[in-house]
Amino acid sequence: MTIADHGEVHRIWRSAKGICVVEEDAREGISLYLSRNRGLCFVATVGGRIVGTVLCGHDGRRAILRHLAVRPGYRRRGIGRELVERCRRALRRRGIRKCNIYVMKDNPGGLRFWVGLGYRVLDDDYLTLQASTSV
Q1: For the structural domain made of 3-132, what CATH number should be given?
Q2: Considering only CA atoms, which of 101, 102, 104 is closest in space to residue 63?
Q3: How do residues 93-116 score in pLDDT, each as one tens digit?
Q4: What pLDDT was estimated at residue 116?
């Protein structure tokens, strides 16, 4: 993903059920995120059109995936799974072994997706799922 993709990915995030778009998702915030997390954020394209997106960053020991979204007409084709796997591979190359994601409580489809990829619900005050990047 590059900052040039921002307009399109922001539209995808805003239209995706289960993604909470906040002020930091504006162009300036995403530009900062991308520069700090070079090579960790991805888009999926079909015929030159962005159909999926994921943000990935880390603090040096644990990663967080955010805003995984695939356009409705392109779901159930493995695009989301491939975006997550690209993040995991990039994290492994950096020595990051754990990765968290946050799922909105009113997003049971998202929860099923992440659990299906090997993430597990942690016993916290909030819903956190975590998987090893070596899975």
Answers
A1: 3.40.630.30
A2: 101
A3: 999 999 998 888 888 888 899 899
A4: 92
Q: For residue 22, what are the contacts with CB-CB under 8 A and spacing of at least 6?
A: none
CB contact set of 109 (below 8 Å; sequence gap of 6+): 17, 18
Q: Which residues pair with 66 in a beta bridge?
A: 55
CB-based contact 6:27 (threshold 8 Å)? yes
pLDDT above 60: residue 119: yes
The CA distances from residue 12 to 15, 73, 88, in Å, are: 5, 12, 22
Cα-trace Rg, the chain:
14
Query: What is the SS3 assignment for 17?
Result: coil
